[in-house]
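Incident log entry.

Two folding requests arrived from the same account within the same minute. Monitoring flagged them as a possible duplicate submission, but the sequences differ. Recording both here for audit purposes.

Request one:
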Amino acid sequence: MKLIKYVTTWLLACVALTACDDNGGPDDIINTQKYDLQGKVEKGPFVSGSTLSIQPMDESLQVLGSMYNTTIVDNMGSFMVGSKEFDSPYAELMATGYFFNEVEGVLSNGTLTLRAIVDLSNSNTVNVNVLTHLKYARIKNLIATGKSFTEANNTAQRELFKAFALEQFANKEVSLFTITAGTDEAAALIAISSLLLVDRSEAELTEYLAKLCEDFGKNGVFSEEIKTEIESDKCKLAYRLTDIRENIIERYKDLGIDVKVKNILQYIDWDGDGKAGNETLKENELVVVDPATINVPNEGGSYTVTITSPIAVYLEPQMDEDIIIDAPTTDVIESIMDGLYEGYDSNISDHNKISCTVELAGKQLNIAVATLQSSIDKSKEIMLYDYVGNVVARVVINQAGNGQNIPSPTETPALGETGKAMVANIAMRLATGLCEYNMIEQYYNYNAGLDLVNKNVSPTASCIAKAWNELYAAGNAVLTLKNADEKSLNVYGDYCNILSAICYSTLVYGWGDVPYLREYNDIQQSVEWGGAPQTNATEIFAQLEDNLRYAIEVLPEKKNESTQDFNGLFFASKDVARVLLANICLYEGKYNEANDLLRQVVEAGFYEFDTTSGDICQIPASSSEVIYALLCDSGTRTRANITIEQPLEIPYLTLTDVMLSLAECNYMLGREHEAENYLSEVKRAKNITTEGGNILQEIKSVREQTLLHSGTYFAFLKRTGLAKEVCGVEDYRLLLPIPQQELETNMNLMQNPGY
């Protein structure tokens, strides 16, 4: 039986060989296999309708059979070829189309082509990206030298990641990398992709990629010319990393997906030592200085500070200060005193500085402090930076003054050049935060029919993070200015309190209990404590109310001139304090006090209605109706099908607002006739009609038509109990979510209930 079996097998083999000889020989035997191919094409993601071709190839990368063609099926770059027969597991994929530009945050103006060569036997999922594109030519060249596909692919990967100082990913197949994964691999892909794209058009990117592929394809390294260009691109990329992260999150949010993006900073080799990520602190890492505070007598002295750090630290940023990430606030208090006031610098500039020399020697700082020529105690901060320019530690020097007196001004001095620059920064930060906050208000206002709140308001939403961050940045800048003034002439406190009230009242209206930083020292303490704790909203309001009541007593009774110049914006009048205080009283149900404050604004007679437009954002900020306005970036903002034409100046407090608030006060106090009179004045001036309902509903209608874009509408809906009805949201949605990134960095915060 065995003999028969062997003979049969031999005969079948002969038949097979004969058949092969008839068709060209045994080398033409082909093992066909089906592959259910799917994946993504990502630069940013290619958009729906982009084309993709799949060309089967043999192990020498020679073309086999027919090409398959398909299209990208969604705006996340997804494709599905379905079950197809391949005569070999090797294939070339080539995608051409428009893509999301993660650097600029917009869709590309032109198309881009990306390639990949893959072994389908390893995975049916194949992603095409800049990494697969960069190693494409290198793989082909290595195979041409006799290497197998596996050897060529592995070699190309090792060389590619070494070129970008990311050798920890050398054994990770790049055709499996995807932006949406939220992993280290995803962050590495984003980092390299953004580095190649920054400041390039689609045509320039196509040309540059061709240059890179040719260069890398030859020897698996980049030429010195390319390396120099990459170094230049790092500098251009550095200050845009936060925007890139937010652009990606926002793009996928619009597509209905919550995507996490790791800190891209960790995946670029900033110092050129061949290892990315060792220039900056990783999560939970700290730089510790001991002592962190040095108390120095007036005559000075010498001191040593020990440094414990997992990374190299520097006394100055090592990158160009114009492009470093989160440009640090250097020795703020000392430096801004020069030029803080107009006309008083000669009296105080020689007496306001701590003079010291600082030497960084290994793991310690050597500090020599000279005698202080100042009448009062002074403080100075010595900053330690990582390579990229982030402040990683501070040493505070407190030095005793000599007791001499600085001449007091006979009247409050105007802002000097430094003072103007600081107020300009505060105003821009505040305006940016209010603009982003107003966009959130639009989501709420139009939510009932479009479900915009669930789609766009979450702890990871970029609009939430931007509004929060900008308002806090403005508030901290106010405290910096206030502290500098307190250490000199101490004449700007009440004006600073006005700006602080705008910041923190908006934060409370939106988020409820939030961290409240009262003094400049609170900023540093919050860093040392791992973040500032939340303060009860009632406590914050009480402090703001005290500050505003005192400001009303001492500020001038005049027409506010916030749009005239930065002095006009900073030196607010009694009316600004009155309206801000009245708004807080309204929110707390103190209608009698709010009514009295608002009546004083009207009776002062400085303001009159602008009848040129109903929407206050369509009237000039210099209009006689505007009580207070802020500068911002003008232009069109569109999110989730909502478009706002943002003017250069935002009328924040207006006569329309005051009159509608008076109508609200009187309605709540049961004086409907008076409420109707105030409401009618606005309707006549703005040529507005309302349809039935009670007076409060009419006030709501007029506010919606006139003040929807002022950043005050959501607070009105909440304090009047209309928010749930108008917006169609659940109770917990009446407070905004605290940004997730804030919770991750501030251990003392708790998320608002429901999120």
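Request two (distinct sequence, not a duplicate):
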Amino acid sequence: MMQYQVWRGTPSPLGASVKKRGVNFALFSESAEKVELCLYDENEKETARIAIREHTNHVWHCFVVDLKPGQLYGYRVHGPYAPEQGQRFNPNKLLIDPYARATSGPIKWDPAVFGYEIGHEKEDLAFDQRDSAPFIPKSIVVDSRFDWADDSAPETPWHETVIYEMHVKGFTKLMKDVPAELRGTYAGLGHPAAIKYLKELGVTAVELLPIHKFADDEYLVQKGLHNYWGYSTVNFFSPDWKYSHSPKLGSQVKEFKEMVKALHAEGIEVILDVVYNHTAEGNHMGPTLSFKGIDNKAYYRLVSDSPRHYMDYTGTGNSLNVINHHTLRMIMDSLRYWVSEMHVDGFRFDLASTLARGFHEVNQLNAFFGIIQQDPVLSEVKLIAEPWDLGEGGYQVGQFPNQWTEWNDKYRDTVRGFWKGDEGKIADLGFRLMGSSDLYEHSGRRPFASINFITAHDGFTLNDLVSYNQKHNEANLEDNKDGNDNNHSWNCGAEGLTDDKDVIGLRARMRKNFLATLFLSQGVPMLVAGDEWGRSQGGNNNAYCQDNEISWLNWDKADRELLDFAKSLIQLRKDHRIFCRRNFFQGEKIRRGENKDLLWFSPDGNEMSDEAWSQDFAKSVGILMNGQALHERNGKNERILDDNFIWLLNASHVPVEFSFPQEAVPENWSRVFDTNETWPQNESQIDLKESYTLAPRSTVLLRQSQLATR
């Protein structure tokens, strides 16, 4: 063992901090009796074990002279092993620093990584004495210095934002324009070829599936599968090593920063999907990797009358204890770190309702939201909630605070149901296409509080949604029993079609219908990577464990017509403020004497009556959007005008003949697109004095230029 000069150090900041003379180490544990710092060489051989003597306000700290960046380390924490009392200390288990900025390779699953003796009749009550160090990733001391040069956040306004949900590896793994050694890495996503595609598509932000250090779950490894999505966090400060192309220890930090810098240079924001609601340590039978062995009672929500067990609002075995001030501080420190040090632009919070829970119930005003609202750093970035969890009262769509946006599953379900041909969807569709004012306007929120999506990583791809009636998750090796049974598609109205060309044509039309609906709706559109060109997962609607061609984007199979159509829709949205308003349409609420900014009409051309809205059988509707009544102003306080648009939607199985409302001045109208026809389409003139026949399962957009009035 090597000998090091050790000073008392400081309790702040937590983690391993590089100083001029060495490295300061600080670890929080309010119940520990003794803490040891273990140092390792590059071959992960232990070179020193240092008993930390100093502890201040439950923080154990020391300063090791002459240590350098790249140093590997871990902790052993002593205390009672008493699961019945919520204590699970076991110094035989090497523990990952919760504040580690980087970690070495994967967890090597072995009985030694569990705090109890596996197979013992007392289950998790049986203390295990095996050393877990050979199987646990080591924490890495990181040099945080980086030349950001003139990097600056794009700060795209919410109403102009177009989100692209993607996986760092899957996006470039098969992208031939990216050098082979960079594919599937942070550097691959930051490569000019990848960024060029994103720019040409027109998205303004990438939302990355979890990149925090996560576990390949043991049960998956045993089956030869891998955790692809990453919703099994081990550490909240470390970018996962799997997406680094360099073998150098800790290089993932620099590579991540370089990726962000490259995306920012082209005006593209970076949003992280973060999982602060639970960790990879699971329930009482799970492994001891970090938090569980450092201070189980502080980090996790335990059952009050049975602290051996964990509160589970997530379906994953445990829930982080945001009631504890130090655990809450860790989450906030992590968020600030990713903004201040890694320059990310926002977060999407997985199962965010869990973070809003007080002692049990969901409470908007708990400490987590209050601190974020007051934080000078976090209050300025994009905050997206998945507004539900699996616990009682966890469904909170429309209930998050004003600074937050939300994944709007009501939008998803209504739009899917409408295009499927379900009855009784028209009234709800009216709210969803126009920003869901019924969910957000009452609390003073804007249309962009609604993150609109048709598909997400969890479920069918857009192509599979219109191609399969049942899920096909056989590759997950769970007898096709996993995945959401309610996430079925429907054969998209192909019943009775005997010609394969007709079926293929209908599916192509349905894909365009969904894309058009997504990008013409008020709110913030979220597009899943590859949906713009018809990516398929072969009907797998739960590809969380498929780190292979099932999940990776196969660019050779891209449907160029669909891709070009998607690009045109995004550009249309950017060119016309009327599709991305900052305020809700007022419709009937426009004061007398002004033109309505929005009018819904039936195929007969008459404005939708209360009776028409309530008709269960109605499956067709028209919308007149008045660009001259936009009622918004730019930064110079000048009135913003736009073109007028008519949007026709027909979800029925038969053609529908539309007449136009008398409020629409008939001159100077042209057709932008009709999803029943191939793309591209010339913008042909339309005479509103004549009717327009809308094909079954199709949508049409008409435009009246107002350039002369601007």
